[in-house]
Amino acid sequence: MRRILVTGMSGTGKSSALERLRQLGFRVVDTDEGDWTEWSAAEGGYVWREEPIAELLASDGGPSLYVSGTVSNQGRFYDRFDAVVLLSAPAEVVLSRIETRTTNPYGKTAAQREVVLRDVAEVEPLLRRTCTHEIDATRPLEDVVTELAKLGLDR
């Protein structure tokens, strides 16, 4: 069983890609949903709840596992993933997607869009330096999913 982290800025298509991977029979966990994260005043944002994430990544057997999220403490778990994949897209693409999506309310306010732009400028380069793979998320979703699925099948 391979473990793949799919990370990137809001609006790059992480949730859409994971849904397609789920439909293909892979195991997926979107850490933006459920109790995977908690607010950290010290970090100034959400972080993974480390014990549940550690337990998830320690599980073995079954189809490859795709975990999606972008939090400040994810680097503590990089050694437990077979691949860390950054989905990236230019700021104008990200903002356009956020504006038109109906599955997630984040990014609809001017203040949230400012945070998104700051994250693209400041956080994405950090993720780029630490990822093992980068996928251009401006490509059609099916192409992105095909590339992600291949990582889950490689041995």
Characteristics of this structure?
155 residues; alpha/beta; Rossmann fold; 5-stranded parallel β-sheet; two-stranded antiparallel ribbon; 5 helices; 21% strand
Summary?
41% of the residues lie in helices and 21% in strands. The protein has 155 residues and is an alpha/beta fold.
The name of the CATH topology is Rossmann fold
Q: So, the CATH homologous superfamily?
A: P-loop containing nucleotide triphosphate hydrolases
Name the overall outline. Answer: globular
Fraction of helical residues? 40-55%
- SS element count, helices: 5
Number of beta strands: 7
Instruction: Report the C-alpha radius of gyration, rounded.
Output: 15 Å
**What is the strand arrangement across the widest sheet?**
2-5-1-6-7
CATH class: Alpha Beta
Taken as a percent bin, the fraction of beta residues is 15-25%
Set down the secondary structure blueprint:
Blueprint: E1 3-8, H1 14-23, E2 27-30, E3 37-40, E4 45-48, H2 50-58, E5 65-68, E6 83-88, H3 91-100, H4 110-130, E7 133-136, H5 141-153
What would your notes on this structure say?
- This protein has helices spanning 14-23, 50-58, 91-100, 110-130, 141-153, and strands at 3-8, 27-30, 37-40, 45-48, 65-68, 83-88, 133-136.
- Helix 1 (14-23) crosses helix 5 (141-153).
- The chain has one domain (3-153): Rossmann fold, CATH 3.40.50.300.
- Strand 3 (37-40) and strand 4 (45-48) form a beta hairpin.
- The strands form two sheets. A five-stranded parallel beta sheet has the order 2-5-1-6-7, with helices on both faces. Strands 3-4 form a two-stranded antiparallel ribbon.
- It is an alpha/beta fold and 155 residues long.
- It contains five helices and seven strands.
- The longest helix has 21 residues, at 110-130.
